[in-house]
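Deviation from plan, reported transparently: 5'-deoxyadenosine complex.
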Amino acid sequence: MSANLAGLSYFIRTFGCQMNENDSERIAGLLEAEGAVRAERAEASDIVIVNTCSVRAKAEEKLFSYLGRLSAPAEARGAVVGVVGCTAQVRRTAFWDKPRRLHFVLGPGHYELIPDIVRARRPGRVCVTSRHRQWREWPAGRTRLSDPWSAYVTIMEGCDNFCAYCVVPFARGREKYRPFALILDEIRSLAGRGVREIQLLGQNVNAYRDPGAEGRGLAELLDAVSAQEGVEWIRFLASHPRTFSAEVARAMARNRKVCRQLHLPVQSGSDTVLARMGRGYGRQGYLDKVRQLRDLMPDIQLSADIIVGYPGETDAEFAETLSLLEEVRFANIFSFRYSPRPFTAASRGPDDVPAQVKKARLTAVQALQKAIQAEQHRDFLGRTLTVLLRGRDKRDARGFAGRSEGNQVVNFRSRSEPAGPFVRVRVTGSGPYSLKGERVEPV
Ligand code: 5AD
Ligand code: SF4
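Because the crystal trials were delayed, the predicted structure below was used instead.
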């Protein structure tokens, strides 16, 4: 293996979703294959890469302030600095306007260029943000594993849904599906490296179709990944409620390695808001899918994303979201205030819910969900769960942290250092955001 970047250190700061985390780990793998070593801090590294997210205004604001702090010291020490990811794609020119010393701006799908750009080390600017129409496989390279037992595997990229509020189709482009065989090759290699949990990723995984002749879909992929020796837990995200099919629900149910957990972003409980968002389903349609999943897998833990303050959202429409939370009783939600995003249909109309109203609605959603979670977590007291170890509990010198099959955070004590990856934990305490327990030591 060539070592053209030997002696250089790199640092990657990642904003945004799991897809970005996976891309960052792959970039790290490319750089390490050339001899670069990982640095803990941006301040001391020779190569600084910022992987950006543009899904909400807040993510972008954080990015620009981070770049502001980074730029002058990086320039002073002659570091190579690059911006990649969704904001690089969507706001490409914004990075050139400012007197900042950036060496490259690359949209998703062009990261194989990074080692060459860094090697050239010229203060020139490289900007590549065209979007590919078809899947392009990454060059061979060992994805860096930030967690030795759990890894993301990208199965598709992009989104054709064009929900009225969402920038993703403009950032990641149209849907591109990774060939079935290449997905399985990567999983086989990860399992060989000791990985036990695979999280299949894509912005719209229900649309997955093998681009090969057979056109196999997500259900067949779940069957095939389940057959892979060494893989114990399988998750997949993100699902769209409109295209989440009974076939995939059945594939989950018949494959015991698929975790009893699903992220199914609902966004709103109101039919009229869902229609304005262009989601293609209504409240009842969503509830029907939830019932179907729970009929097949009674212990399944569901989570969702919620947007409050969508344009035109009335008090009555918002109340429908609260009542949906009470009806479904999600294990977890991610809730956001609406913010207009470039190129989207919703951004062409007014952003007319006042900031204080959005804030109050977000608080109300989060308070209700907190109470629901606290109550649901109490039901786990006394139960023994299988937990995938993540590492030490940062707040407890004798404690460890992990995740249950239902994706709940579990903090636990253990008399001996667990060899990992799976441990059994008896739940002895609970709060709204996590469970606490004692490891059931093997006898
Ligand atoms: N404003 C607020 N939240 C948004 N999301 C996507 N676009 C916006 C926006 N313009 C949220 C959705 C999505 C999650 C990833 O981010 O809830 O599911
Ligand atoms: Fe952010 Fe969406 Fe891009 Fe992920 S795909 S980084 S959530 S904008």
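The radius of gyration is 22 Å. We consider this an acceptable substitute for the interim report.
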